[in-house]
Amino acid sequence: MPATRSSLFRRGLAVLVALPLLTLAACGYGSKAADGTAEQKIAAGAKKIDGLDSVTIGYFGNVTHATALVGHQKGFFQKALGATKAEYQVFNAGPSEIEALNAGSVDIGWIGPSPAVNGYTKADGKNLRIIGGSASGGVKLVVDPKKIKSLKDVRGKKIATPQLGNTQDVAFLNWIAEQGWKVDPQSGKGDVSVVRTDNKITPDAYRSGSIDGAWVPEPTASKLVAEGAKVLLDESSLWPGNKFVITNIIVSQKFLREHPKAVEAVLKASVDTNKWINAHPDEAKAAANEQLAVDSGKALPADVMDPAWKSLSLTDDPLAATLNTEARHAVESGLLQDPKLDGIYDLTLLNKVLRAEGEPTVSDAGLGAE
Q1: Helix axes 66-73 and 281-296, enclosed angle (nearest 10)
Q2: CA end-to-end distance (rounded Å), the chain
Protein backbone atom coordinates (compact mmCIF):
# COMPACT_ATOMS: atom_id res chain seq x y z
CA MET A 1 0.00 0.00 0.00
CA PRO A 2 1.53 3.38 -1.01
CA ALA A 3 2.64 5.67 1.77
CA THR A 4 0.29 8.42 0.68
CA ARG A 5 -2.72 6.11 0.97
CA SER A 6 -1.49 4.83 4.33
CA SER A 7 -1.18 8.33 5.69
CA LEU A 8 -4.66 9.17 4.44
CA PHE A 9 -5.97 6.14 6.27
CA ARG A 10 -4.81 7.62 9.56
CA ARG A 11 -6.18 11.09 8.92
CA GLY A 12 -9.60 12.60 9.40
CA LEU A 13 -12.85 12.22 7.56
CA ALA A 14 -14.40 13.76 4.53
CA VAL A 15 -17.43 13.31 2.39
CA LEU A 16 -19.09 14.08 -0.86
CA VAL A 17 -21.09 17.27 -0.36
CA ALA A 18 -20.85 19.23 -3.59
CA LEU A 19 -22.15 16.78 -6.15
CA PRO A 20 -25.84 16.82 -7.11
CA LEU A 21 -28.01 13.75 -6.91
CA LEU A 22 -28.57 11.97 -10.19
CA THR A 23 -31.92 12.06 -11.95
CA LEU A 24 -34.19 9.32 -10.67
CA ALA A 25 -34.54 6.13 -12.69
CA ALA A 26 -37.07 6.38 -15.47
CA CYS A 27 -39.34 3.81 -13.83
CA GLY A 28 -39.54 5.81 -10.60
CA TYR A 29 -37.45 5.10 -7.56
CA GLY A 30 -36.78 1.52 -8.63
CA SER A 31 -38.38 -1.48 -10.24
CA LYS A 32 -40.26 -4.00 -8.16
CA ALA A 33 -38.39 -7.29 -7.93
CA ALA A 34 -40.30 -10.52 -8.44
CA ASP A 35 -39.85 -13.18 -5.79
CA GLY A 36 -38.53 -15.67 -8.30
CA THR A 37 -38.54 -18.66 -5.94
CA ALA A 38 -40.92 -20.70 -3.80
CA GLU A 39 -38.81 -19.99 -0.72
CA GLN A 40 -40.38 -16.52 -0.55
CA LYS A 41 -43.70 -17.93 0.69
CA ILE A 42 -44.62 -16.99 4.25
CA ALA A 43 -44.45 -20.00 6.55
CA ALA A 44 -47.70 -21.24 8.06
CA GLY A 45 -48.26 -19.93 11.58
CA ALA A 46 -45.65 -17.18 11.23
CA LYS A 47 -46.25 -13.93 13.09
CA LYS A 48 -45.78 -10.35 11.98
CA ILE A 49 -42.79 -8.45 13.34
CA ASP A 50 -43.46 -5.06 14.93
CA GLY A 51 -47.01 -5.32 13.56
CA LEU A 52 -45.76 -4.60 10.05
CA ASP A 53 -47.52 -5.92 6.98
CA SER A 54 -44.33 -5.56 4.93
CA VAL A 55 -40.73 -4.35 4.87
CA THR A 56 -39.33 -2.99 1.60
CA ILE A 57 -35.70 -3.83 0.86
CA GLY A 58 -33.73 -2.02 -1.85
CA TYR A 59 -30.67 -3.25 -3.71
CA PHE A 60 -28.89 -3.07 -7.08
CA GLY A 61 -28.85 -5.81 -9.69
CA ASN A 62 -25.06 -6.06 -9.26
CA VAL A 63 -22.81 -8.89 -8.15
CA THR A 64 -21.50 -6.55 -5.44
CA HIS A 65 -24.98 -6.78 -3.85
CA ALA A 66 -24.69 -10.56 -3.61
CA THR A 67 -26.03 -10.73 -0.04
CA ALA A 68 -29.29 -9.10 -1.08
CA LEU A 69 -29.56 -11.17 -4.26
CA VAL A 70 -29.04 -14.48 -2.48
CA GLY A 71 -31.05 -13.47 0.59
CA HIS A 72 -33.96 -12.68 -1.72
CA GLN A 73 -33.63 -15.72 -3.96
CA LYS A 74 -33.19 -18.25 -1.13
CA GLY A 75 -35.80 -16.72 1.16
CA PHE A 76 -33.56 -15.70 4.08
CA PHE A 77 -35.24 -12.31 4.47
CA GLN A 78 -38.75 -13.72 4.36
CA LYS A 79 -37.89 -16.43 6.86
CA ALA A 80 -36.51 -13.87 9.32
CA LEU A 81 -39.50 -11.53 8.90
CA GLY A 82 -42.12 -14.22 9.57
CA ALA A 83 -45.60 -13.09 8.46
CA THR A 84 -44.30 -9.62 7.62
CA LYS A 85 -43.88 -9.72 3.86
CA ALA A 86 -40.44 -9.00 2.41
CA GLU A 87 -40.89 -6.71 -0.59
CA TYR A 88 -38.12 -5.53 -2.90
CA GLN A 89 -37.12 -2.66 -5.17
CA VAL A 90 -34.18 -2.91 -7.57
CA PHE A 91 -32.19 0.24 -8.39
CA ASN A 92 -29.68 1.27 -11.04
CA ALA A 93 -28.05 4.11 -9.08
CA GLY A 94 -27.41 5.06 -5.48
CA PRO A 95 -29.01 8.52 -5.57
CA SER A 96 -32.38 7.09 -6.61
CA GLU A 97 -32.23 4.60 -3.75
CA ILE A 98 -31.45 7.42 -1.30
CA GLU A 99 -34.43 9.36 -2.64
CA ALA A 100 -36.65 6.32 -2.16
CA LEU A 101 -35.38 5.91 1.40
CA ASN A 102 -36.04 9.59 2.10
CA ALA A 103 -39.55 9.27 0.68
CA GLY A 104 -40.32 6.17 2.74
CA SER A 105 -40.82 3.84 -0.20
CA VAL A 106 -37.76 1.83 0.88
CA ASP A 107 -37.07 0.92 4.50
CA ILE A 108 -33.70 -0.83 4.33
CA GLY A 109 -31.22 -0.88 1.46
CA TRP A 110 -27.96 -2.29 0.17
CA ILE A 111 -25.88 0.54 -1.28
CA GLY A 112 -22.34 1.75 -2.04
CA PRO A 113 -20.42 4.04 0.33
CA SER A 114 -20.42 7.25 -1.72
CA PRO A 115 -24.21 7.57 -2.15
CA ALA A 116 -24.66 6.70 1.53
CA VAL A 117 -22.33 9.41 2.79
CA ASN A 118 -23.54 11.91 0.18
CA GLY A 119 -27.16 11.29 1.12
CA TYR A 120 -26.39 11.52 4.83
CA THR A 121 -24.56 14.81 4.42
CA LYS A 122 -27.17 16.40 2.17
CA ALA A 123 -29.83 15.59 4.80
CA ASP A 124 -27.67 17.04 7.60
CA GLY A 125 -27.39 13.59 9.13
CA LYS A 126 -31.14 13.20 9.64
CA ASN A 127 -32.19 10.59 7.10
CA LEU A 128 -30.22 7.35 7.35
CA ARG A 129 -27.84 5.18 9.31
CA ILE A 130 -25.35 2.59 8.08
CA ILE A 131 -26.28 -0.48 10.10
CA GLY A 132 -24.11 -3.22 8.63
CA GLY A 133 -21.63 -4.35 6.04
CA SER A 134 -22.14 -6.59 3.05
CA ALA A 135 -19.20 -6.75 0.65
CA SER A 136 -15.59 -5.83 0.04
CA GLY A 137 -13.61 -5.74 -3.18
CA GLY A 138 -14.95 -6.42 -6.65
CA VAL A 139 -13.36 -3.35 -8.29
CA LYS A 140 -10.68 -3.52 -10.99
CA LEU A 141 -8.76 -1.45 -13.51
CA VAL A 142 -9.18 -3.31 -16.79
CA VAL A 143 -7.52 -2.16 -20.01
CA ASP A 144 -7.01 -2.83 -23.69
CA PRO A 145 -3.80 -4.93 -23.70
CA LYS A 146 -2.87 -3.66 -27.17
CA LYS A 147 -2.75 -0.07 -25.91
CA ILE A 148 -1.78 -0.47 -22.24
CA LYS A 149 0.81 -3.02 -21.17
CA SER A 150 1.85 -1.60 -17.78
CA LEU A 151 0.55 0.85 -15.16
CA LYS A 152 2.74 3.66 -16.52
CA ASP A 153 1.04 3.25 -19.90
CA VAL A 154 -2.25 4.48 -18.39
CA ARG A 155 -0.92 8.03 -18.73
CA GLY A 156 -2.36 9.66 -21.84
CA LYS A 157 -5.16 7.12 -22.19
CA LYS A 158 -8.97 7.31 -21.88
CA ILE A 159 -10.22 5.44 -18.83
CA ALA A 160 -13.89 5.15 -17.87
CA THR A 161 -15.37 5.41 -14.38
CA PRO A 162 -19.10 4.95 -13.65
CA GLN A 163 -20.02 8.47 -12.52
CA LEU A 164 -18.49 11.80 -11.50
CA GLY A 165 -17.68 11.57 -7.79
CA ASN A 166 -18.87 7.99 -7.33
CA THR A 167 -16.83 5.49 -5.30
CA GLN A 168 -14.78 4.20 -8.23
CA ASP A 169 -14.27 7.67 -9.72
CA VAL A 170 -12.80 8.93 -6.45
CA ALA A 171 -10.58 5.85 -6.11
CA PHE A 172 -9.22 6.32 -9.63
CA LEU A 173 -8.57 10.03 -9.11
CA ASN A 174 -6.70 9.20 -5.93
CA TRP A 175 -4.63 6.55 -7.71
CA ILE A 176 -3.81 9.02 -10.49
CA ALA A 177 -2.60 11.55 -7.91
CA GLU A 178 -0.40 8.89 -6.31
CA GLN A 179 1.32 8.39 -9.68
CA GLY A 180 2.19 12.10 -9.68
CA TRP A 181 -0.13 12.81 -12.59
CA LYS A 182 -2.56 15.74 -12.84
CA VAL A 183 -6.24 15.60 -13.79
CA ASP A 184 -8.94 18.24 -13.40
CA PRO A 185 -11.51 16.42 -11.25
CA GLN A 186 -14.56 18.10 -12.75
CA SER A 187 -13.75 17.79 -16.46
CA GLY A 188 -11.66 14.63 -16.17
CA LYS A 189 -9.05 16.17 -18.48
CA GLY A 190 -5.34 15.97 -17.84
CA ASP A 191 -2.53 13.43 -17.89
CA VAL A 192 -5.26 10.79 -18.05
CA SER A 193 -8.68 11.36 -19.63
CA VAL A 194 -11.28 10.22 -17.08
CA VAL A 195 -14.44 9.42 -19.03
CA ARG A 196 -17.57 9.16 -16.85
CA THR A 197 -19.62 6.39 -18.45
CA ASP A 198 -22.63 4.45 -17.18
CA ASN A 199 -21.67 0.85 -16.43
CA LYS A 200 -24.40 -0.36 -18.78
CA ILE A 201 -22.73 1.18 -21.83
CA THR A 202 -19.07 0.83 -20.80
CA PRO A 203 -18.65 -2.51 -22.66
CA ASP A 204 -20.01 -0.90 -25.84
CA ALA A 205 -17.66 2.06 -25.37
CA TYR A 206 -14.73 -0.32 -24.97
CA ARG A 207 -15.78 -2.34 -28.00
CA SER A 208 -15.98 0.80 -30.14
CA GLY A 209 -12.55 2.00 -29.03
CA SER A 210 -13.85 5.22 -27.44
CA ILE A 211 -12.21 4.21 -24.15
CA ASP A 212 -8.95 2.35 -23.52
CA GLY A 213 -9.98 0.84 -20.21
CA ALA A 214 -12.09 1.34 -17.09
CA TRP A 215 -11.89 1.44 -13.30
CA VAL A 216 -15.17 -0.32 -12.55
CA PRO A 217 -16.99 -2.71 -10.19
CA GLU A 218 -18.17 -6.21 -11.00
CA PRO A 219 -19.66 -7.49 -13.16
CA THR A 220 -18.66 -4.67 -15.54
CA ALA A 221 -14.96 -5.48 -15.11
CA SER A 222 -15.48 -9.10 -16.10
CA LYS A 223 -17.72 -8.08 -19.00
CA LEU A 224 -14.79 -6.06 -20.36
CA VAL A 225 -12.43 -8.98 -19.87
CA ALA A 226 -14.86 -11.11 -21.87
CA GLU A 227 -14.45 -8.47 -24.62
CA GLY A 228 -10.69 -8.98 -24.62
CA ALA A 229 -9.57 -6.55 -21.91
CA LYS A 230 -7.12 -7.60 -19.20
CA VAL A 231 -7.04 -6.85 -15.48
CA LEU A 232 -4.18 -4.41 -14.85
CA LEU A 233 -4.93 -3.71 -11.18
CA ASP A 234 -7.29 -5.07 -8.53
CA GLU A 235 -8.18 -2.21 -6.18
CA SER A 236 -8.15 -4.55 -3.19
CA SER A 237 -4.34 -4.73 -3.51
CA LEU A 238 -4.18 -1.06 -2.49
CA TRP A 239 -5.90 -1.57 0.88
CA PRO A 240 -4.75 -2.96 4.24
CA GLY A 241 -5.64 -6.65 4.39
CA ASN A 242 -7.00 -6.32 0.82
CA LYS A 243 -10.34 -5.13 2.25
CA PHE A 244 -12.36 -1.99 1.55
CA VAL A 245 -16.07 -1.30 1.65
CA ILE A 246 -17.98 -1.63 -1.60
CA THR A 247 -21.50 -2.33 -0.24
CA ASN A 248 -23.15 -1.39 3.07
CA ILE A 249 -26.64 -1.75 4.56
CA ILE A 250 -28.56 1.44 5.34
CA VAL A 251 -31.89 2.12 7.02
CA SER A 252 -34.19 5.07 7.43
CA GLN A 253 -33.66 6.58 10.87
CA LYS A 254 -37.44 6.77 11.29
CA PHE A 255 -37.83 3.08 10.48
CA LEU A 256 -34.95 2.15 12.78
CA ARG A 257 -36.49 4.12 15.63
CA GLU A 258 -40.02 2.79 15.15
CA HIS A 259 -39.31 -0.83 14.08
CA PRO A 260 -36.06 -2.08 15.65
CA LYS A 261 -37.24 -5.70 15.72
CA ALA A 262 -37.83 -5.67 11.97
CA VAL A 263 -34.39 -4.13 11.40
CA GLU A 264 -32.81 -6.76 13.64
CA ALA A 265 -34.61 -9.49 11.68
CA VAL A 266 -33.24 -8.21 8.35
CA LEU A 267 -29.73 -7.97 9.83
CA LYS A 268 -29.98 -11.54 11.12
CA ALA A 269 -31.06 -12.62 7.66
CA SER A 270 -28.06 -10.80 6.18
CA VAL A 271 -25.64 -12.49 8.61
CA ASP A 272 -27.24 -15.88 7.94
CA THR A 273 -27.10 -15.28 4.18
CA ASN A 274 -23.39 -14.40 4.24
CA LYS A 275 -22.67 -17.46 6.36
CA TRP A 276 -24.57 -19.67 3.90
CA ILE A 277 -22.85 -18.06 0.88
CA ASN A 278 -19.40 -18.64 2.34
CA ALA A 279 -20.30 -22.28 3.12
CA HIS A 280 -21.91 -22.94 -0.29
CA PRO A 281 -20.08 -20.68 -2.79
CA ASP A 282 -21.09 -22.49 -5.99
CA GLU A 283 -24.75 -22.85 -5.01
CA ALA A 284 -24.77 -19.23 -3.83
CA LYS A 285 -23.28 -18.02 -7.12
CA ALA A 286 -26.03 -19.85 -8.99
CA ALA A 287 -28.69 -18.35 -6.70
CA ALA A 288 -27.33 -14.82 -7.20
CA ASN A 289 -27.36 -15.29 -10.96
CA GLU A 290 -30.91 -16.67 -10.84
CA GLN A 291 -32.06 -13.53 -9.02
CA LEU A 292 -30.19 -11.33 -11.50
CA ALA A 293 -32.12 -13.09 -14.26
CA VAL A 294 -35.43 -12.46 -12.46
CA ASP A 295 -34.61 -8.79 -11.87
CA SER A 296 -33.06 -7.95 -15.26
CA GLY A 297 -34.45 -10.64 -17.53
CA LYS A 298 -31.02 -12.10 -18.26
CA ALA A 299 -28.48 -14.11 -16.27
CA LEU A 300 -24.77 -13.41 -16.60
CA PRO A 301 -22.75 -15.85 -18.74
CA ALA A 302 -20.24 -18.05 -16.94
CA ASP A 303 -17.22 -16.19 -18.37
CA VAL A 304 -18.52 -13.06 -16.62
CA MET A 305 -20.16 -14.43 -13.49
CA ASP A 306 -17.34 -16.78 -12.45
CA PRO A 307 -14.49 -14.22 -12.24
CA ALA A 308 -16.82 -11.53 -10.87
CA TRP A 309 -17.92 -13.83 -8.05
CA LYS A 310 -14.34 -14.81 -7.17
CA SER A 311 -13.23 -11.18 -6.80
CA LEU A 312 -15.87 -10.38 -4.18
CA SER A 313 -15.50 -10.88 -0.42
CA LEU A 314 -18.69 -10.93 1.64
CA THR A 315 -18.53 -9.53 5.16
CA ASP A 316 -20.86 -8.41 7.93
CA ASP A 317 -18.27 -5.79 8.93
CA PRO A 318 -19.03 -2.37 7.39
CA LEU A 319 -15.27 -1.68 7.33
CA ALA A 320 -15.91 1.78 8.74
CA ALA A 321 -12.25 2.76 8.82
CA THR A 322 -12.01 2.32 5.04
CA LEU A 323 -15.04 4.54 4.59
CA ASN A 324 -13.02 7.23 6.40
CA THR A 325 -10.23 6.79 3.90
CA GLU A 326 -12.52 6.76 0.87
CA ALA A 327 -14.10 9.98 2.09
CA ARG A 328 -10.69 11.56 2.58
CA HIS A 329 -9.72 10.62 -0.94
CA ALA A 330 -12.82 12.40 -2.18
CA VAL A 331 -11.77 15.61 -0.45
CA GLU A 332 -8.19 15.41 -1.67
CA SER A 333 -9.40 14.82 -5.22
CA GLY A 334 -10.60 18.43 -5.24
CA LEU A 335 -14.26 17.57 -5.72
CA LEU A 336 -15.47 17.69 -2.15
CA GLN A 337 -15.58 19.64 1.08
CA ASP A 338 -14.98 18.57 4.65
CA PRO A 339 -17.89 16.63 6.12
CA LYS A 340 -19.71 15.89 9.31
CA LEU A 341 -20.10 12.13 9.45
CA ASP A 342 -20.59 11.75 13.19
CA GLY A 343 -23.48 9.38 13.79
CA ILE A 344 -23.61 7.84 10.32
CA TYR A 345 -23.23 4.36 11.83
CA ASP A 346 -25.48 2.54 14.28
CA LEU A 347 -24.12 -0.98 14.68
CA THR A 348 -26.00 -1.76 17.89
CA LEU A 349 -28.39 -4.28 16.37
CA LEU A 350 -25.77 -5.87 14.13
CA ASN A 351 -23.47 -6.44 17.08
CA LYS A 352 -26.39 -7.90 19.02
CA VAL A 353 -26.97 -10.38 16.20
CA LEU A 354 -23.26 -11.18 15.93
CA ARG A 355 -22.94 -11.83 19.67
CA ALA A 356 -25.95 -14.17 19.52
CA GLU A 357 -24.26 -16.03 16.67
CA GLY A 358 -21.00 -16.29 18.62
CA GLU A 359 -19.24 -14.02 16.11
CA PRO A 360 -16.91 -11.10 16.91
CA THR A 361 -18.49 -7.65 17.00
CA VAL A 362 -17.51 -4.88 14.56
CA SER A 363 -16.39 -1.27 14.91
CA ASP A 364 -17.93 2.01 13.78
CA ALA A 365 -14.46 3.70 13.75
CA GLY A 366 -15.73 6.40 16.12
CA LEU A 367 -18.63 7.41 13.86
CA GLY A 368 -21.45 5.78 15.81
CA ALA A 369 -24.74 7.35 16.76
CA GLU A 370 -25.05 8.25 20.44
Answers
A1: 90
A2: 33
